[in-house]
Amino acid sequence: MSASSVRHYCGLFGIFGHPNAAFLAHLGLYAQQHRGQESAGIVTSDGVRLRRHAEMGLVNDVFKPGVLDKINAPSAIGHVRYSTSGASCAGNAQPLLFEFAGGQVSLGHNGTLTNAAALRAEFEARGHIFQTTSDSEIIIHLLAAPEHVEHERPLASVLERIEGAFSLVMLHNDRLVAVRDPMGFRPLCIGRMDNGAIVVASETCALDQIEAQYMRDVAPGEILTVDAAGMRSERFGPVDPPRGGACIFEHVYFADPSSNIFGENVHTARKAMGKALAREAFVDADLVIPIPNCARCAAIGYAKQSGIPLGRGFTTSHYAGRSFILPDQDQRDLAVRMKLNVIKDAVRGRRLVVVEDSVVRGTTTRGKISALWKAGAKEIHLRVASPPLRHPCYYGIDFPDPRKLVARDRTVEQIREYLGVDSLHYLSAEAMLECVKLPPNTYCTACFTGDYPTEVLVPLEKLALDPEAKED
Ligand code: SF4
């Protein structure tokens, strides 16, 4: 992927019933660092009070030695964040922690609420003062509103007022709550530790990190409550929604390949996409190379299906970080340059199939292709293991201004010319959906197809043309 061009969102973790909950939350967040690198936070409960530590920075920088000892308790929630809504600042770091008539409550949110602006305006008109600019705080204000406090199912009634994508972890003094929106946009899974502690996390790689056994996913429209009495579940929202919203981009790019997302392994799905790509667009060549590192699984699939050897065209610095999560475009471009080096001997005089998982702005891909030409490649055929990205996401993935998407107003032939390759093929949407297990209408593919699974009221700022936007 032109990874510097898309921002990510968040990773969630929660645990109830372990004497080292804060330490395990730290490990669970560390395993999900790829989901957000701007801020990290943990809130714990000792059964009476909640304590919080959250700051800007990477998990290991935020939780320096000694910090976890101070907040450790038998239950915890944690969050790594990239701001998809609200400013990138310490005040918006999650989990949020509030106190209201119902007691203390802490919240971690992955996703974007599509009706946040209207709800916030409604509360502000009623005199509410918001402490953050994050859309997630709306949920707390709804919880504290008298009509919900007095409701027989307060949380369900709150969740029925919010729209869009939301996987949530919430901590009260005596319980952990996990929620997935009725469309199931964002993943959230449940595991159990040997001592019986219940764990929830965005990705199963966090369960693996702490040796918890995967039990199942939190179902779309489920509220899972874990307390001293055990685990119980209730439903909210429409009983049988006509379609789902599981984000196909988790499989294409975001999730860790070791994770199981929406019921299947990410590596396996990506490899299948690479194989499908080779079936759709075989080209005779000497070497298949992924543009590292995210396209590696798809490149394995392409090589296997085509019979062309898989090789390395680049080395990657392990110290440069994931560039796409850096908040500033200049920082991201610099990070990409710093972390990739062409292995000249591997590509000189060779006919290359270069496999990408997706192309966003195209600027980074073009730079990598140019580096391969300079290193003496004989032919370059670009194969992209997903369809052209042409539409904005309103569910928590922060693609750039739509004008900056390389495929927005270009044909595939125009993109080929722009990127400077001999041939270019994108995986079809139909083939992409055949590579994942669930029925097609379970997934959201809107950024590729424009087929949004919910009605979206397009926020003005999404349509406003960015005066600083450069034409690629
Ligand atoms: Fe995922 Fe794209 Fe749908 Fe957003 S629009 S939820 S990135 S598939």
Explain what this protein looks like in three dimensions.
The protein is an alpha+beta fold and 472 residues long. Helices cover 29% and strands 24% of the residues. The strands form 6 sheets. Strands 3-2-4-1-10-9-11 form a 7-stranded antiparallel sheet. The protein has a 6-stranded antiparallel sheet with strand order 5-6-7-8-12-13, with helices on one face. Strand 7 (167-171) and strand 8 (175-180) form a beta hairpin. Helix 9 (248-254) packs across helix 10 and helix 10 packs across helix 11. The chain starts with 9 loop residues before the first strand and ends in a 9-residue tail after the last helix. It binds iron/sulfur cluster (SF4). Iron/sulfur cluster (SF4) is lined by residues 185, 247-249, 393, 395, 397, 444-447.
Distance between the termini: 16 Å
Q: What global shape is seen?
A: globular
Beta-strand segment tally: 23
| Overall pLDDT | 89
Which percent band covers the strand fraction? 15-25%
Task: Determine the oligomeric state from the structure.
Answer: single chain
Return the structural class.
alpha+beta
**Helical segment tally?**
18
- What ligand molecules are bound, each kind once? iron/sulfur cluster
> Helical content, roughly?
25-40%
Profile the largest sheet: 7 strands, antiparallel
Spatial strand sequence of the major β-sheet: 3-2-4-1-10-9-11
Gyration radius (Cα, Å) is 22 Å
Low-confidence stretches: 2-6, 460-472
